[in-house]
Write a structure and sequence with these properties.
The complex is a heterodimer. Among the domains of chain A are: 88 residues, Ubiquitin-like (UB roll); 259 residues, 3-Layer(aba) Sandwich (Rossmann fold), CATH 3.40.50. Chain A has 16 helices and 25 strands. In chain A, strands 15-14-22-21-20-16-17 form a 7-stranded mixed beta sheet, with helices on both faces. In chain A, strands 2-1-5-3-4 form a 5-stranded mixed beta sheet, sandwiched between helices. Chain A has a 3-stranded antiparallel beta sheet with strand order 6-7-10, with no helix packed on it. In chain A, helix 9 crosses helix 14. Chain B is an alpha/beta fold. Chain B folds into 3 domains: 205 residues, 3-Layer(aba) Sandwich (Rossmann fold); 84 residues, Roll (Ubiquitin-like (UB roll)), CATH 3.10.20; 90 residues, NADH-ubiquinone oxidoreductase 51kDa subunit, iron-sulphur binding domain (de novo design (two linked rop proteins)), CATH 1.20.1440. In chain B, strands 6-5-11-8-9 form a 5-stranded mixed beta sheet, with helices on one face. In chain B, helix 7 links the parallel strand 2 and strand 3. The chains are: A alpha+beta, B alpha/beta. At the A-B interface, helix 2 of A face helix 14, helix 15 and helix 16 of B. The structure holds flavin mononucleotide, iron/sulfur cluster (2 copies) and FE2/S2 (inorganic) cluster. FE2/S2 (inorganic) cluster binds next to loops of chain A.
Chain lengths: 538, 427
Amino acid sequence: MPTLTIDGKEISVPKGTTVLEAAKTNGIHIPHYCYHPALAVVGNCRMCLVKIEGMPKLQTSCSTAVAENMKVFTKTDEVRKAQQGVMELLLINHPLDCPVCDQGGECDLQDFSYGYGAGKSRYEFEKQTFVERSLGPVIKLNMNRCIRCTRCVRFCQEVRGKAELDFFYRGQHSELATYDNQELTGALQGNLVDVCPVGALTSKDYRFKSRPWDNRDVKSVCPFCEKGCSTDITVKWRTGQLLRTKPRYNPDVNGHWMCDHGRFGYHAIFDGQRVQKSEATIGGAGLSVVPREKAYAAVYEASKRIRERDGGSVFFGLGSPHASNEDNFMLAKFMKDAFQCAHFGLNATEDSGEAEDYPGFKIPSFKAPNLQGARDAGITEQGVGYAGLRTAIGKGEVKALFVLAGNRFSDWRGDFELMKRVDLLVIFELLPSPLHPLATATIPAAAWTETDGTMTNMQGRIQRFWRGVDPAGDAIPQWQALVELGQRFGLQGYQQLKRAEDAFKLLAASTPGYAGLDYSKIGDRGVLRVVEEAALAR
Amino acid sequence: MEATLIKHIGHTAFRDIDTFVQGGGYRAVEKAFGMRPEEVTEAVKSSGLRGRGGAGFSAGMKWSFVPKESQLPKYLCCNADESEPGTFKDRQIVEYEPHLLVEGIIICCYAVGIHSAYIYIRGEFAYGAEVLENAIAQAYSRNYLGRDILGKGFDLDVTVHRGAGAYICGEETALLESLEGKRGQPRLKPPFPAVVGLFNGPTVINNVETLAAIPSIINNGADWYAAIGPERNRGTKLFSVSGHVVKPGVYEMPLGTNLLALINDCCGGIRPGRTLKAVIPGGASASVLRAEECNISLDFDSLAKAGSMLGSGGAIVMDDSTCMVKVAHTASRFFYEESCGKCTPCREGIGWVEKLFRRLESGGGRETDLALISDICDNVKGKTLCPFGEAFSAPLDTFVKKFREEFLEHVRQKRCPFGNPPPDPVH
Ligand SMILES: Cc1cc2nc3c(=O)[nH]c(=O)nc-3n(C[C@H](O)[C@H](O)[C@H](O)COP(=O)(O)O)c2cc1C
Ligand code: SF4
Ligand code: SF4
Ligand code: FES
């Protein structure tokens, strides 16, 4: 561990660490553009110059490895002049169109100009201009704003694994483009927006929708595959509108990136007709909108009749890898408490078979986030998933069915006739479920952005997501609806379950591998559940 | 003093391998094969030969930096990109002494343990490339190249690669990128090419003239070479002299030759009726010398001490009819067009400086422009990724500092006092 000083502060860092990284981990900020922790070091922006004692020229801290007894200075007059010089030069041909630029407010060019620039320019000539270009379905390029740091080029080469983006022409004329003006390909394009430190690459999806100071970011987890990338969801303060999803750095899961399926997947939920009201069939009539309590009452009455007629064994809980640990746990708990029923299955367990392997990022093929968590939470499958359920229904063994995330009923084969043999069908749904017309009662469910909770990804990593926006209409977290339903059934202890974490603590207490966990212990990056040797042996 | 580098300049006969061999050619290869490789490197080291591509680094030292054992193949890249304005000396070797170059390449590769060499030749030198190709084909046919050369168990392949018209590809790491088929832009150093070079293998990069000097060092001995020229600046050098002299051309002279002697004795002096005003001694990247500074020894150290450099040895001589603002603008325009654009200070700085020079030459400049140019140059100097930043910021700043009065005269008269029209627009 070499020991060096940076601005007089003594620090020790592992051998091979660069001066820039050493400074960063010790709270000293050195401005930089081309450096990105996950990309090759190229040293082209020259923003990170520092003074190193004994070296005649200033050195790029991004590319200089620390050495024993090295003395680094980041704030000398010489360094400041160099920083001001680079800033001025970066801006002479820059349009300074911050008021109409998407990046404005979250832009390194703005920030470092304020922090390290001279605050004025001496350039009086015409600026160089380029026309705006589309780089494919996701990205818009405004070359005027580009500082040619080549982060995007390196991203395509190193992470996406296809050299489809590069600079053409030379010097000040150099212009970013794709070969033959083809569209960018692959499912990692959105990352280019994050990787670009300025407003040159903007997202066609997000552009012009908001300004950063009107937004807040809420920590979340991507629910579109079993990888479970850590994300931030951006919410507009005033309207509560969900604006975009960005990857949140998590070295244990997704690093700096996420895929476009996850990034833009929220549209599938939020652009659709969200279910906003609960509905129930009252007195033999068809479904009609009712207050939630009425729906619960309908479920209670029907359950009572069926139970008296057929006993508890005809009740079946269909959990979902699209629902949280809390949701699945409460379904299992409610079924057991109310009906002493132990019949469970999972819907939407089919693998898409569409894995994507990029050199720097792997996208798994199973497109639901919480298969592991649902199983852990007590949805131990009976028979063979939905196929088993169909057989059971056919034999008349299932008369009451409770379905989580009914909108994600991807296993559904359109067998309405079969489903009619179920007397009580309760569906929790974000969007109308294909089974909706057959339901006895439906409850509008909150999306992952609208509630707190946890999911357990393919690694067995338990991850936390936070409520960022208000639920649509009367939507309610599924675990909470099950708590309310339990209260209507007069079940013991349901009064005390007020927050998602209460449900989680019960889950933790009864689930091997989750023992002793609470939300604070899970933290931002999640924790691996402890798999006991006994469980592994099984 | 006998020429060793361009003995046959003007005589196409020596492109033919038989004529060349009859004149004593390829004898150095045989002699070198009789030595151990380390001995060859040692001889080049003690000869004092310094690189002729501009930086003047000891050739023998450079060879000795290449690791003996390497997992990856080692390479030699002969730098024949010669694009420095005012420089046209490698071209003479390529066109009139192609076998001398091949001979130097074989010896270098033998010394360093290299089995594949590339000659990266400036794209515009189509003719020179053809001459080289023919010479190489002949050398293969006589087994000076190829497998088991001269029965000594040494293999070597030489390939000619033509550049695509970028000055920056003469910079050694940009050359490597270009050879690899990538955008010709410099790499961050370290690692240095001697350790990680072409296709990641250890690589020697030497200028044409450097390699062409090797055979005579081997033939005549290191001591013979080390006796030519002043301390630390040994051997003969090619000087390409252009501009306002009576006989412009390429002259081979010992290092340490006086600049005025080169102009007057070799080149027949300044053209009649005119007086010397200034000389750019080492290609456009070298800082200009005023007439009164021209009584100077042409060697690496003396020119560095005078704030300029020997560079490529391309001397651009200017008489009193020359407008130095126009010269400065012309130089800035070249660098503006040739900056590769990879790093910020060079890419942006040179464009700005070119515009300021243009405005000054057009008569629209201000006195404050001079300080501004100097300050921009200062913000570039020492802050770029490759030496190109210095290559323009130092000489352009020097124009402003040494010819301040002439610049101010443009400002006062609001036109070029030499009557030059405003420069054409750049595209
Ligand atoms: C911008 C730039 C252009 C260069 N152009 C050439 C060139 O055309 N030919 C050359 O031999 N060296 C050129 N060089 C120098 C090379 O980088 C390198 O130092 C040289 O080829 C090494 O050979 P030497 O040691 O034999 O001189 C250039 C350097 C820079 C920075
Ligand atoms: S588009 Fe953005 S990431 Fe790409 S080179 Fe330009 S500034 Fe850098
Ligand atoms: S100094 Fe100029 S030529 Fe060298 S890397 Fe930077 S932009 Fe390219
Ligand atoms: S961050 Fe170091 S040169 Fe760009």
